[in-house]
Design a protein that fits this description.
heterodimer; A: 329 residues; alpha/beta; 9 strands; B: 434 residues; TIM Barrel; 13 helices; 29% helix; globular
């Protein structure tokens, strides 16, 4: 399937928005991943730019600080020829009374084609999507989902290992508060991987096994025979006393170092969504090991995955390209 | 619609199905009101014809029962009149068949002094629809530290004492309040929830994990309840647990009652009608405190209502305007409006066969009246003529847009129910007619 729309056959992503991975079918996830792979190949060939979204407007609406994700979406939009506008909304102005709905209405009146939204509250992006006419991509909502991160993680793994099916993948760290963990759990289990969650009990959400993962509280046992180790960032405000007693205690039991990594398969690969807290959840030596660490590649895949998502969610605007399926998301 | 009662005007309700949950009367018959009181009633009344000079109302075989007593209502007046006023809540109550309602003291200002109680009473007299009572707070400014003038407020008509939607968290304050209020034979009404475990926004469990929302475990409720039951045992004070939501709490109350403690409790219709899945895709209208629980909890609450472990059903009417609810789930306010859905949702238990019609009605009439020592909630000669005429079977969909309440935050939009209030009478005055 090629990105400029010469493909025939049914369109493989019949949703108006990308709000989360939960509920997507293996075919829909496969569609986004294969399109992302196309973009990656084109990038490798040096033909990454296109005018596919020329004259289209993408607004990055960020209610939370982010450099990486915002830049990645910005670059993806620009590579496709779209006009990209960044809006950073301070949390304080939200508290002051302009509601999320007001913001959505205002932006909607500017007729964007895609809204890329990050918000510190779970469900906020879904709420906003109900009030606007354009496509919405969730760039992270609270502790709920961060679908493009899961897609880029999956693409990174697939490029190294060929497929997700039957891999054993450990997700380690603050599972409770992590949208990255949730999106990855949904994606990886849907695609047939075995997923383990490793965390101290205070950072392991209730009933996590109901999401199809195996919980572990001992990192060595959790890492045994793993193909992939995904580390999560531990937020500063949770480091001291409230959820874990101290940084050094956390690193001692849940930080990834050479010694704990021995439990995993000898060729196990290491991932991290960034930004890393070196010496908190991951040892520098491992983070920088170019044979084991996929961290740089994850960032690279971020751009192509977001190109694929922008392409997919604007296809209804290019009726010559592909028919749109059911419009609901 | 409003008709003044003639001073000693007599109205005969003929051809009615008389329902009195307290005496367990369920029979065809008639009822006579004289002025503000019930003069007589029974199967034989007017069997030989109606004397002259009495206004006759043909009930067409429909149910005539005592008006509902809703012991947990937030009026929002004074302070948040954009959400509800005593007048709009009274109109909602009248339409819902509620003839007496009791307000929580968590207004602005808080009802923690005599002036607050007098204000509510004066506004209720001005509005002159349903009977409006109030609780006083347990502690000054709801701060949880100093107890208020329980004796004086009782003299001025406060029916009980509660910190409203906040738990009295300190065991020593609760202990003092229980023993002190005992002197005045007033109950302490607790929102049973351990605050340090209740910083979440929905029931803790799989759904909260999936939605990335912080959970409130059922243990937060039952551990506060169990603590309080120990204090009741020690002090002998009267204790009423508000809006129970989970199976564990039902068990704790069952044990306490078996041991003879002076304990009563209540739930709200959403806790036996809905479970946590109503939150679905972050529906803030299903955000309530305590949170909607699991299906097993919902079933346990329904069962406890049926077997009488739960004495009372109250609406827990909590009006919120759109701006307080159209927000990300974590930021939205807790609560649902309930005055106009209390009767049909309670009747649903009877329609499902879980409980008899008289028992269902008892939970919203004589039982709350008994907890509060109110002369209400029963058919008796000389009792106030606070009555409802209703059709228990009329099928319809609940439509919050048609509610008289200023706020429409109900999770029951489109919910199919049976039962409709046809007429509401307070002190012999017709204050609502469908």
């Amino acid at each position: 399937m090629s990105a400029n729309g010469e493909q025939s056959g049914a369109f493989g992503f019949p949703h108006r928005h990308l709000l989360g991975i939960e509920g997507l079918s293996p075919l829909e996830i496969g569609f986004l991943l294969s399109l992302s792979q196309d973009y990656a190949d084109r990038n490798d060939r040096g033909s990454g730019r296109s005018a596919l979204l020329e004259g289209r407007t993408v607004i990055n609406l960020f209610f939370e600080n982010s450099t990486r994700t915002r830049t990645s979406f910005e670059l993806a939009g620009k590579r496709l020829g779209a006009d990209v506008i960044n809006m950073q909304v301070g949390w304080s102005s939200i508290k002051k009374g302009e509601t999320l709905i007001d913001t959505a209405m205002t932006l909607n009146a500017m007729h964007p084609d895609v809204l890329v939204v990050r918000h510190p509250d779970s469900g906020a992006v879904s709420l906003l999507s109900q009030k606007v006419d354009c496509a919405v991509i969730n760039a992270g909502d609270g502790s709920h989902e961060h679908p493009t991160q899961a897609l880029l993680d999956a693409l990174t793994i697939i490029r190294r290992r060929g497929a997700l099916k039957d891999l054993t993948i450990a997700i380690c760290g603050d599972i409770s508060h992590s949208r990255v963990a949730r999106s990855n759990i949904h994606l990886l289990t849907t695609m047939g991987a075995r997923v383990r969650a490793i965390a101290p009990p205070t950072l392991m959400p209730r009933a996590i096994e109901r999401l199809g993962v195996e919980p572990h509280f001992d990192m060595r046992k959790g890492l045994a025979d793993c193909d992939i180790v995904m580390m999560l960032r531990l937020q500063t405000e949770r480091m001291q006393g409230s959820f874990v007693p101290s940084i050094r205690e956390y690193f001692r039991f849940f930080g990834l170092d050479k010694e704990k990594l021995l439990a995993a398969k000898p060729d196990a690969l290491i991932m991290h969504p960034g930004p890393m807290n070196r010496g908190v959840e991951i040892d520098s030596e491992i983070a920088d090991d170019i044979d084991r660490s996929l961290i740089r590649e994850q960032v690279e895949m971020g751009v192509v995955v977001r190109m694929a998502c922008l392409d997919t969610l604007t296809r209804h605007l290019r009726p010559d390209v592909a028919p749109v399926g059911a419009a609901a998301s | 619609m409003k008709r003044p009662a003639k001073a000693n005007g007599r109205v005969a309700y003929l051809n009615a199905r008389l329902l009195d949950p307290e005496s367990r009367l369920d029979a065809a018959g008639a009822l006579l009101t004289e002025g503000t009181r019930i003069a007589d009633f029974g199967p034989q009344l007017f069997a030989e014809g109606l004397p002259d000079g009495i206004e006759a109302v043909d009930c067409g075989g429909r149910c005539l029962a005592p008006g509902l007593v809703d012991m947990r209502v937030q009026l929002r007046e004074p302070g948040e009149e954009h959400k509800e006023t005593i007048e709009s809540a009274s109109l909602a109550a009248a339409a819902g068949g509620v003839t007496s309602m009791v307000a929580l003291p968590n207004t602005e200002p808080i009802v923690d002094d005599v002036a607050g109680v007098e204000y509510i009473a004066r506004r209720a007299r001005e509005v002159k629809l349903v009977k409006v009572y109030t609780y006083g707070s347990v502690t000054r400014r709801l701060e949880g530290t100093e107890i208020i003038e329980i004796g004086l407020l009782t003299e001025f008509g406060a029916l009980g004492f509660t910190d409203g939607t906040k738990a009295v968290a300190s065991a020593s304050v609760m202990s003092r309040a229980l023993s002190y209020a005992k002197t005045f034979d007033r109950p302490i009404i607790q929102h049973p929830e351990e605050p340090s475990l209740a910083s979440g926004v929905m029931n803790a469990g799989e759904l909260a994990t999936r939605l990335g929302l912080t959970g409130i475990p059922d243990i937060a409720e039952v551990m506060m309840l169990e603590r309080d039951l120990r204090l009741v045992e020690m002090t002998g004070g009267r204790y009423h647990a508000a809006h129970l939501s989970c199976a564990k709490s039902v068990e704790a109350i069952r044990t306490a009652k078996a041991r003879g403690l002076p304990v009563t409790c209540e739930t709200a219709p959403h806790y036996f009608t809905l479970n946590e899945t109503a939150v679905g895709d972050y529906r803030t209208f299903a955000k309530v405190s305590p949170p909607l629980r699991s299906e097993a909890d919902r079933a346990a609450i329904a069962e406890a209502v049926a077997d009488g472990t739960i004495d009372v059903i109250a609406s827990d009417h909590s009006p919120h305007d759109a701006d307080s609810k159209r927000l990300p789930f974590a930021m939205a306010d807790f609560g649902v409006v309930g005055l106009e859905s209390l009767l049909p949702l309670t009747l649903e238990l009877a329609h499902k066969g879980a409980v008899g019609l008289l028992d269902a009605l008892a939970r919203v009439t004589c039982a709350p009246a008994r907890v509060l020592g109110l002369e209400a909630g029963r058919l008796a000669r000389g009792a106030p003529a606070d009555l409802i005429l209703f059709d228990p079977d009329k099928p319809r969909m609940l439509d919050p847009d048609a509610f008289r309440s200023k706020s429409k935050n109900s999770p029951f939009e489109g919910h199919p129910v049976q039962g409709e209030v046809l007429r509401t009478v307070v002190d012999g005055r017709v204050i609502f007619e469908a």
